[in-house]
Design brief:
With 194 residues, the protein is mostly helical.
Length: 194
């Protein structure tokens, strides 16, 4: 059963062109995004240790994202590219976080759904990379990531459904999907995941 919803818009071709034109820069940003994704999953564990129904999946997700970071790091090493010294702010995620409500109950729901939307966008973009990058090993790598990120998009919705009514979850998810499309299309095109 599909738990997440389709994105409001596709990533523009100009984004893919920028990535393929400066793939090393994309890889550096991708590594940072995987580090942040792992930390985000663990932050749920730290903030909500009483949510025992979802802790195992959150821990598994954090480990999987850290493994992705390791794999991207190995690709960077093979290409002679170092990790950036500084992890810059992610304007895309920042604008999405700004949409989250502040009261504890609703913030928990919003952060789960925000994670779902970000993972779903990542899956779409990894699919685009897999289908267009020239190197066969990178095609394979990004295809596996595409599948993984799509799964994560579903996992976070499934977690939300553990604690909130279905109608509330999908109404709020629709809100985030609509806003995510607006945010995405308003961002400067660069060789980065977001």
């Amino acid at each position: 059963m599909k738990l997440s919803m389709d994105l409001a818009c596709d990533s523009p071709q100009a984004w893919l062109d920028a990535v393929l034109d400066n793939f090393d820069s994309f890889l550096q940003d991708h590594a940072n995004c995987e580090r942040k994704a792992s930390a985000m999953a663990m932050s749920f564990v730290a903030k909500y240790p009483d949510r025992k129904e979802i802790l195992p999946e959150l821990i598994d997700t954090a480990i999987e994202e850290l493994e992705h970071f390791k794999q991207v790091y190995q690709i960077l090493e093979q290409r002679g590219v170092s990790l950036p010294h500084k992890i810059g702010a992610d304007l895309y995620v920042g604008k999405l976080v700004d949409l989250c409500r502040s009261d504890p109950r609703n913030r928990f729901l919003d952060r789960l759904l925000l994670a779902s939307v970000v993972e779903t966008r990542g899956a779409e973009r990894f699919r685009m990379v897999a289908e267009n990058v020239k190197e066969p090993e990178l095609q394979h790598f990004y295809k596996t990531l595409w599948i993984s990120e799509a799964k994560h998009g579903h996992i976070f919705v499934k977690m939300a459904l553990q604690y909130f009514e279905r109608d509330e979850v999908y109404e709020r998810l629709a809100f985030f999907i609509e806003k995510e499309g607006e945010i995405l299309l308003g961002l400067e095109i660069k060789s980065a995941l977001h």
